[in-house]
């Protein structure tokens, strides 16, 4: 077997144990770089995401509340952390900006099926951000993380009042 062939299949003496992991990391790195370019080129309004500095495995995302929803005019920052097994395992996505919502808890955790049991490698950063943006205006009231928000969701006036109160209690973090 030639040296090049051995290296290609990860059997060279110096790379025998690290090549598969490195190849996996390179594959995820390429996927995330491709998704970043795709997101930058998309015409989707109200969503964006970029790696935090040189760390391709952690991004900061931004979503705007949808037009015609109680979140219209609001902007939320998200933290996206990608596992080394991405895209076969979902990224961990949390709200960095405090968010009063039926499917978001006080720590920013999001109850969204595509981030859990319904995850598929076909999803990407764009579909995740668009799904969260959609969730803002159309929550899953059958699976709330914030029971109070879920209980008043259908009373627009009461919900807006609670939303403004929540926003006022978190002025330094903005939303």
UniProtKB/TrEMBL annotation:
SUPFAM superfamilies: UBC-like (SSF54495). InterPro entries: Ub_conjugating_enzyme (IPR050113), UBC (IPR000608), UBQ-conjugating_AS (IPR023313), UBQ-conjugating_enzyme/RWD (IPR016135). Pfam families: UQ_con. Coiled coil: none annotated. GO terms for molecular function: ATP binding; transferase activity. Belongs to the ubiquitin-conjugating enzyme family. This is UBC core domain-containing protein.
